[in-house]
Amino acid sequence: MANKKFWRIFISFLLIINSCYFGLELYKEGIRNQWMENEQLNQEAFTELSRLGSWTYFIEVVLLIIIVTVAAWIIMKKHRKLLRFLTYINIAACVIFFGIGILLANIFEATAGNLVQHLIGPTFITVLLIIYQLVLLFMKKRDSTFKN
């Protein structure tokens, strides 16, 4: 029961954090478009974009901290099934949020790269988790081969 509750909370955090990121990036895109149309907004727009850039960076860091913390906790507990489940969740989240980012970029005529750049870190961590699990699997098979 505790595991289900934990995963619900984890997935909820992923949803909330990614939604906030998309919202801020779309808002930044709107400010950039206004800035290009009205030259008098230069200082105000620059200040607002800088502030929003800080927020999006903060969200990227929080997303990484959450994923790394959960992965480290599971690795320290040596619970391979949970680690595999975390990897599946991360893969699904990266694919889904990448698709949502591309879709939003097309709907709102925004820059697709800005809407999906926050997924670079989680994707990298997921790749590292996959490599870690493959190494564990290889070591387990190697040890069982030598025992026979």
TrEMBL record:
Keywords: Membrane, Transmembrane, Transmembrane helix. The chain crosses the membrane at residues 7-24, 55-76, 88-108, 120-139. The keyword Membrane applies. This is DUF4293 family protein. It comes from Proteinivorax hydrogeniformans.
